[in-house]
């Protein structure tokens, strides 16, 4: 006799055949290492959610053995969710309900989760826009379970874009666990970080980057910004402004500081250069007035980009935003991320800082400074520069205005065959940066 469990406080009984589920899950576990408890959790939650959503009532979870079903789901009828969040919630519930329905059909069933993965985005001028002047190129991704092979079973429970025949491959994430986490975050209205999702079971996920990719896939599939999933990234960026409680750089906060006495914002690619400017008091002593120093320690995370946009919006008058990056393909790519976003943030167009002034380093600076400080481009640099140029140009040859400078400098870089880091400025970095800023501010 199959053991049955009934949901409480739903006004009707919802039963689950866990013997049947265990039989299916055990088969998958035997073939792929997929853990039955993860599917039990998903199956049970999605059935509760289906009934709870239909009746507009809260679903009280029960503790069943070692499966954590204790988290209460909020009363969605009381939540004030955005349309984008409702869209994502509906997609997740429909996907999980479809899986549960298939699981009940017997051994001939083939439960699957369908997502779309963004491959790249092309620059366009006015049509088929995904973000700020970009057109998406993506492909469908299907994950079925338990499948005919161990690989197919593994892909359903553990998503990977790499060779899944290697059991040591860490680039794996549990699709069902992430869908559950996102659903719980939206339902409760309490945000969760990607790191929280990963550390809920790091052994299962294997690597943080796969959780990041799956979150991006869900957002792209639902055609919503990541914020609609109530998933955030732990901020890695730093900032410093005059008059703050500590003289030390602070981690990027959720809300911007007072911008009343701030005259400019300077974004620096490297943390080492950022620290040098902080130590010299550039943010407080510059002839360009008091300002804010910011670094994302390389490529900008979403939290840093959100912070910068909020700072600009909260300022009483428009503030000039400056950028200081290495003269190499990576530095120009980072500039591009600030100005127009990246593939993973294609739907976060409102965060683009198209107004950012690029101070350098540029090809003209290489000519002006000691030539011995420049480095030769590697073959890898050349390939990356060529790929970036192609990505900045549409099939019709159009290039957005915010990419003109970067594209031209990449072409010059390939001709000159050299690159340079910000450190080429040496002890003159404060005077050089200050003069560049004053020249732009006086226009």
TrEMBL record:
Active site feature: 199
One MF term in the entry's GO annotations: DNA topoisomerase type II (double strand cut, ATP-hydrolyzing) activity
Keyword Cell inner membrane included in the entry's annotation: no
InterPro entries: Spo11/TopoVI_A, Spo11/TopoVI_A_N, Spo11/TopoVI_A_sf, TOPRIM_Topo6A/Spo11, WH-like_DNA-bd_sf
Keyword Metal-binding: yes
Enzymatic reactions: ATP-dependent breakage, passage and rejoining of double-stranded DNA
Enzyme Commission number(s) from the entry: 5.6.2.2
Top EC class, one word: isomerase
Domain Spo11/DNA topoisomerase VI subunit A N-terminal positions: 173-230
Ranges for domain Topoisomerase 6 subunit A/Spo11 TOPRIM: 265-426
Recorded GO CC terms: nuclear chromosome
Cofactor(s) listed in the protein's UniProt record: Mg(2+)
Keywords of the record: DNA-binding, Isomerase, Magnesium, Metal-binding, Topoisomerase
GO BP terms in the entry: meiotic DNA double-strand break formation; meiotic DNA double-strand break processing; reciprocal meiotic recombination
Pfam families registered for this protein in UniProt: TOP6A-Spo11_Toprim (PF21180), TP6A_N (PF04406)
Similarity comment: Belongs to the TOP6A family.
Record's protein name: DNA topoisomerase (ATP-hydrolyzing)
Source organism of the structure: Cyphellophora attinorum
């Amino acid at each position: 006799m199959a053991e049955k469990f009934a949901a409480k406080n739903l006004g009707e009984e919802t039963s689950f055949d866990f013997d049947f589920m265990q039989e299916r899950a055990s088969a998958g576990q035997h073939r792929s290492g997929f853990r039955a408890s993860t599917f039990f959790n998903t199956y049970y939650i999605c059935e509760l959610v289906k009934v709870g959503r239909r009746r507009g009532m809260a679903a009280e979870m029960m503790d069943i053995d070692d499966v954590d079903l204790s988290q209460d789901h909020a009363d969605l009828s009381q939540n004030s969710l955005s349309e984008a969040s409702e869209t994502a919630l509906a997609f997740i519930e429909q996907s999980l309900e479809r899986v549960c329905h298939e699981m009940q059909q017997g051994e001939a069933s083939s439960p699957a989760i369908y997502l779309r993965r963004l491959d790249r985005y092309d620059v366009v001028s006015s049509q088929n826009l995904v973000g700020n002047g970009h057109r998406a190129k993506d492909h469908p991704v299907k994950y079925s379970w338990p499948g005919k092979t161990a690989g197919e079973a593994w892909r359903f429970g553990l998503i990977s874009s790499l060779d899944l025949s290697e059991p040591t491959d860490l680039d794996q994430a549990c699709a069902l666990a992430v869908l559950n986490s996102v659903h719980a975050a939206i339902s409760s209205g309490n945000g969760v970080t990607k790191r929280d999702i990963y550390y809920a079971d790091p052994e299962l996920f294997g690597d943080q980057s796969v959780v990041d990719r799956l979150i991006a896939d869900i957002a792209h599939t639902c055609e919503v910004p990541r914020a609609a999933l109530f998933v955030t990234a732990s901020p890695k960026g730093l900032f410093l402004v005059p008059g703050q409680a500590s003289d030390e750089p602070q981690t990027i906060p959720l809300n911007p500081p007072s911008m009343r006495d701030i005259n400019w914002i300077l974004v620096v690619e490297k943390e080492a250069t950022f620290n040098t400017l902080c130590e010299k008091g550039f943010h407080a002593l510059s002839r360009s007035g008091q300002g804010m120093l910011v670094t994302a320690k390389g490529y900008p995370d979403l939290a840093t980009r959100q912070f910068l946009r909020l700072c600009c919006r909260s300022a009483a008058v428009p503030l000039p935003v400056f950028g200081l990056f290495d003269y190499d393909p990576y530095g120009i790519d980072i500039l591009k991320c600030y100005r127009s976003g990246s593939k993973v943030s294609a739907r976060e167009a409102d965060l683009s800082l198209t107004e950012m002034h690029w101070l350098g380093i540029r090809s003209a600076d290489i000519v002006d400074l000691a030539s011995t400080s420049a480095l030769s481009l590697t073959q890898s640099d050349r390939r990356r520069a060529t790929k970036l140029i192609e990505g900045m140009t549409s099939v019709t040859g159009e290039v957005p205005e915010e990419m003109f400078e970067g594209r031209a400098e990449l072409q010059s870089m390939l001709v000159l065959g050299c690159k340079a880091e910000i450190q080429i400025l040496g002890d003159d970095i404060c005077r050089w940066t200050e003069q560049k800023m004053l020249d732009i501010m006086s226009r």
